[in-house]
Amino acid sequence: MPNLLRALIPTLTLLTAAGVLGCGVDEAPPAKQDQPPAPVEVASARAGQLVDEWVFIGEVRSLRSAQLALGAGGEIVMIEAREGDHVEQGALLVEIDKRQASAQLSAAVSSRRESERELDQARREADRASALGDQILPGEEIERQGARADTLEARKRRLAAEIRAAQAQLSDYQLAAPFAGVVAARYADLGQWLNPGQAVLELVAIDDLEILVDVRPELASHLQVGAEVALRPAGGLLGVGASGAAIGAGEVLAVVPSLDRGTRTLKVRVRPSEPRAWLLPGAPVDVGFSVRYEVGAGPSADAVIVPRDALVLGAVDTRVLVVDDGSAKPIVVEVVATTADEALVRGEGLSVGAVVVTRGNERLRPGQSVRPITADGGDVGPADEGPAS
Questions:
Q1: What domain of life does the native source organism fall in (predicted)?
Q2: Among 126-140, 224-238, 254-268, 280-294, which is the least confidently predicted range?
Q3: Residue 194 falls in which region: left (phi positive, over 0), alpha (psi -120 to 50) or beta
Q4: pLDDT tens per residue, range 71-114
Q5: What is the mean pLDDT of residues 318-343?
Q6: Among the listed residues 185, 202, 162, 169, the one whose alpha carbon sits nearest the alpha carbon of residue 96
Q7: Does an H or E element contain 67, and which?
Q8: Any idea what the Cα angle at residue 96 is, between residues 94 and 98, rounded to 5°?
Q9: Measured between alpha carbons, how far is 77 from 257 in angstroms, rounded to an integer?
Q10: CA-CA distance, 250 to 362, in Å (whole number)?
C-alpha cells in the first residue's frame, strides 16, 4: 500500500497543477468601464441668405490730371506755382519770354493798317474810274483799278489771318491752369529754357476722384452698375478695426466687359460716395464687393449655412461632424463661401436642420459618443438633435 501511494503522488501533483492552470485560463479579465459621451457644443445647419465680401485692391485716380506744357519755346520769365499749391481754373502759372512773338504781332497789325489805307485809296480810284467810263478812260485802265482794289482786299484778309495766328502764338507763351487743382510736381525753374511741348507742371484735381479696381472674372455675375461697395485703406490702416468694418462707401460706375489679356481680370470703376482724407490720387484702397448666396437657389441650391467653427480642415478635405443618434458622424463638405462667422457648404447627406459640432470637434473620432450642449453649457435633448439627411 505505501508503494501504491508513492506511485500515485506524481500523478496527483500533475492533476492539481493542471487544475490550478485551468482555473487561471477560464477567469474573465476585469470589464472595462465605458467612456462617457464627450461634451460638445452644437448648432443647427440653417437655410437663408449668406452675404460674403470679396475684397480687391484698387487705386484712387483723379478724373482730371495732366502734365502741363507750353506750345512755344523760350526762357522762363515767370513761374510761381510750387508743389502742393492750390490753383484756380484760369490762373496764370508760367510765362516765357514773348518779346519776339509780340514784335511779330505788332508788325502784322502795322501791315494791316497800311493795307487798309491802300485799300481805301484803291477803292476810291476804282470808283472814280468806273464813274468816268470808257469814253474818257481806256477800258484796260478801269479794269486795272478794279483789280488793284481786289488785290488789296485779299491782302487785308491775309494780314488779318496773320494777326490771329500771331495772337494765338502769343498765347502759347503763357500757361494757365485748365482746371482747379493742386500742383503735384514742378519740372522747371525760373530762367530755364524750355522747348515747345516740354512738361513744366503736373496738376491734379482732388475733388473729383474715382477708383479703378481689377477683379476676378468669377465676380462678373455679381456685379451691377449702381451697387454699393465698401472702401477701406489698403492694409487695414487708419482706424479700421480687426473686424474690417468699412469706413467708407462707394458706388459701381461701370464695368469693362472684357478681360485684361495679361491679368485675366475685369476692370471696375468705383466712385466714392463722400470725400475721405485717405482717398488721395494714387493711394491703394481695399474695395469690398458684397456677394449674396441664397440657400435653395442658383448654385447654392443644395448647400446649407453652418457656423464657421463647425469646419474641420484636413490635409485633403474639409469636414463637419454631425450628431447622429448620439454619435459623431463626419461628412466631407465643399466650402462655397465664408464670412467671418459662417460658411456656406454642401455635402452628401447634409441638410437644413442637421446638428453640427462647433466646439470639441477637433478631438472627436468617427462614431464617438457625444453629449451635445449649448454655448451656455445646457444639454441638448434628443428631440433637438436633427438628422443628417
A1: Bacteria
A2: 126-140
A3: beta
A4: 888 999 999 899 999 999 999 999 998 777 667 777 778 777 77
A5: 91
A6: 169
A7: strand 65-69
A8: 135
A9: 49
A10: 41
Supply 279's cell numbers: 482717398
Helix (H) or strand (E) holding 38: strand 38-44
DSSP run (H or E) holding 110: helix 99-132
| DSSP assignments along 258-305, one per residue | S--TTT--EEEEEEESS--TT--TT-EEEEEEEEEEETTSGGGTT-EE
Tell me which residue of 251, 242, 240 sits closest to 278, measured CA to CA: 240
φ/ψ of residue 109, rounded to 5: -65, -45
Measured CA to CA, the distance from residue 351 to residue 99 in angstroms comes to: 86
C-alpha cell at 167: 495772337
Which run of H or of E encompasses 176? Answer: strand 174-176
Of the pLDDT bands very low, low, confident and very high (cuts 50, 70, 90), residue 196 is very high
Strand, helix or coil at 379?
A: strand
Q: Can you give the pLDDT at residue 129?
A: 66
Rounded Cα gap, residues 182 and 91, in angstroms? 12
Angle (CA) 9 13 18, round 5°: 150
Q: What's the CA gap between 364 and 319, in Å, rounded?
A: 12
Size of the chain in residues: 389
Beta bridge partners of 42: 357
pLDDT over 60 (residue 27):
no
The neighbouring-strand residues paired with 43 are 356
Nearest to 100, CA basis, from 194, 176, 169 = 169
- Answer yes or no: is pLDDT of 126 > 90: no
Q: Answer whether residue 8 shows pLDDT above 50.
A: no
Q: What pTM did the predictor assign?
A: 0.62
